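Re: [ENG-882] Designed sequences occasionally contain unexpected residues at chain ends

Forwarding the minimal case from QA. Structure tokens:
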């Protein structure tokens, strides 16, 4: 099915370079950042959850409420929806080393592959007897193995070469949510209900809990920077934190505003950290070098960006509350 997607283009020059934060104190004013914001409407009722820019220029997104995988052409604004099967409720989507879209489907309790060329759908159910995992997010490691999380208290791996899936009970049970791979191939996930992050040993599948410095912080998503540091969006505390495996150290910063709710986190090719803040209905840009925040308000009310991903020069999000996709382009 083809749908026409309305494009909305808004240019914003932000003064919000405002505060460079150290130990919670404002230190200096930073230069303003100019960011172009563009929205794309998707079919009503899609409730897009995750988004994944593809090498061919298109953008995949999970149409969670419709049980479909969407594909946007940013040049025309047109979208195409691919049904994933009866009962589907796709959550996460990423582009794999094979160029295909890989989906974590909570409704099917399965991993789903959609071929980029043929759009053929292949379903990999979790092993027989596996309880409902509430599948969340996936990442590929350096060996091409797909690792995934399930909020009901599971994480697992799929070998695309054989189709074999293994599922592991998570330490401390319920909560595994966001997941990421470092440049060295290490895999970490965040546990929202468990208030921690964990490092997975790819050889054994064992997960080791790593405690953030803020209790009950609600670690929701994680992303690695180019140095292998793990950035964490903390839903309950409103912080962004970073864990450095090199010396096992932590640092934390509270997002600006009176009631931040940090949902998603993504680190771009320049090691700039991007977050979505439900409290401010905004994207938040964090520069680790200057420790400065820039807030980018969403054009749509109650946008609810639940995940961020990007490609060089572009930062994409899915506005689940507004039935839109959104892209930010930072101008020099």
């Amino acid at each position: 099915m083809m749908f026409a997607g309305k494009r909305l283009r808004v240019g914003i020059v932000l003064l919000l370079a405002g505060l460079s934060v150290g130990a919670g104190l404002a230190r200096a004013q930073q230069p303003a950042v100019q960011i172009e914001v563009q929205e794309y409407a998707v079919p009503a009722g899609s409730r897009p959850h995750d988004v994944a820019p593809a090498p061919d220029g298109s953008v995949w997104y999970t149409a969670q409420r419709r049980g479909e995988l969407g594909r946007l052409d940013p040049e025309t604004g047109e979208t195409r929806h691919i049904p994933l099967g009866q009962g589907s409720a796709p959550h996460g989507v990423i582009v794999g080393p094979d160029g295909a879209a890989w989906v974590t489907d909570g409704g099917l309790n399965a991993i789903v592959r959609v071929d980029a060329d043929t759009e053929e759908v292949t379903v990999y159910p979790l092993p027989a007897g596996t309880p409902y995992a509430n599948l969340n997010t996936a990442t590929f490691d350096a060996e091409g193995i797909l690792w995934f999380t399930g909020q009901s208290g599971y994480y697992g791996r799929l070998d695309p070469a054989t189709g074999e899936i293994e599922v592991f009970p998570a330490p401390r049970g319920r909560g595994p949510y966001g997941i990421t791979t470092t440049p060295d191939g290490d895999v970490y996930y965040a546990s929202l209900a468990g208030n921690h992050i964990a490092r997975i040993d790819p050889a054994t599948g064992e997960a080791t809990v790593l405690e953030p410095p803020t209790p009950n912080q609600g670690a929701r998503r994680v992303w690695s920077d180019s140095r292998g540091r793990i950035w964490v969006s903390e839903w309950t505390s409103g912080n962004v934190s970073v864990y450095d495996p090199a010396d096992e150290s932590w640092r934390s910063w509270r997002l600006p505003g009176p009631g931040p709710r940090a949902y998603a986190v993504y680190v771009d090719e320049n090691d700039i950290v991007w977050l979505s803040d439900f409290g401010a209905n905004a994207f938040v840009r964090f520069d680790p070098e200057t420790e400065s925040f820039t807030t980018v308000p969403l054009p749509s009310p109650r946008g609810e960006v639940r995940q961020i991903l990007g490609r060089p020069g572009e930062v994409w999000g899915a506005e689940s509350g507004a039935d839109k996709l959104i892209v930010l382009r930072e101008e020099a």
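QA comment: On inspection the terminal residues look reasonable. The longest strand covers residues 33-41. Proposing we downgrade this to a documentation issue.
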